[in-house]
Design brief:
This protein has 7 helices and 7 strands; from the N terminus they run H-H-E-E-H-E-H-E-H-E-H-E-E-H. By secondary structure, it is an alpha/beta fold. Helix 2 packs parallel to helix 5.
């Protein structure tokens, strides 16, 4: 009789242990979904970037106008600095002259010439001026433009596709003239612009 009772006690104990274990599993906290939460670093960084874009208040990046893309910029797609969108540069600049200015937030000469570019771009009838932020991050780039009060549309080149298309030299700033037919010509020597009139003297050559 004692042996039978002992076996019964063992079975009962095992059942109790299993029930307790199941209860612990049921109460164990599950991990949340893999997406970012409201307090995650990714969400915070996105909110900070949005705030910087609002502060910089950059004009929209150029959009395609229907003319066929040609030249070295055809098929080159890069992010717009002022928004979450991307820009097909060849299509966006097709059929019209433009001045491309390559800059970076860490570049002292760039900081000096950006206001001259912005002043020229604000003139009636000015050629399209597009900034290209290279080897940089969006946050310091937007902060620089906001601090300077420079409001020219700009794109970034995180993958180096645009740098390859332009055969970009290692030093910046450097500017390029884009003709209506897609031809791209570097402005040599790459001397930083000091005034809006300096920019106009070069940019007006793109209409030829």
């Amino acid at each position: 009789m004692r042996l039978r009772a002992t076996r019964t006690e063992i079975v009962t104990t095992v059942v109790v242990v299993l029930l307790v274990a199941l209860g612990v599993v049921a109460l164990w906290p599950r991990s949340s979904s893999s997406g970012p939460t409201s307090g995650s670093p990714a969400t915070t960084a996105s909110a900070d970037l949005a705030a910087l874009r609002t502060r910089a208040a950059l004009p929209p990046c150029p959009a395609p106008g229907g003319a066929p893309a040609a030249g070295p910029l055809a098929g080159v797609t890069v992010p717009c600095l002022g928004t979450d969108g991307v820009v097909d540069l060849g299509a966006a600049l097709a059929g019209k002259p433009a001045l491309l200015n390559v800059w970076a937030s860490w570049c002292a000469p760039c900081r000096a010439e950006l206001p001259a570019l912005a002043e020229y771009a604000a003139r009636p009838g000015a050629v399209t001026v597009l900034g290209i932020d290279v080897r940089d991050q969006p946050e310091p780039a937007l902060t620089l433009l906001a601090d300077l009060g420079v409001r020219i549309p700009s794109v970034t080149d995180p993958d180096g596709k645009l740098a390859a298309a332009l055969s970009l030299p290692p030093a910046v700033p450097v500017s390029y003239l884009v003709a209506a037919d897609g031809r791209v010509t570097p402005i040599l020597p790459p001397v930083p612009f000091a005034t809006a009139d300096d920019v106009a003297a070069v940019a007006e050559g793109t209409a030829a």
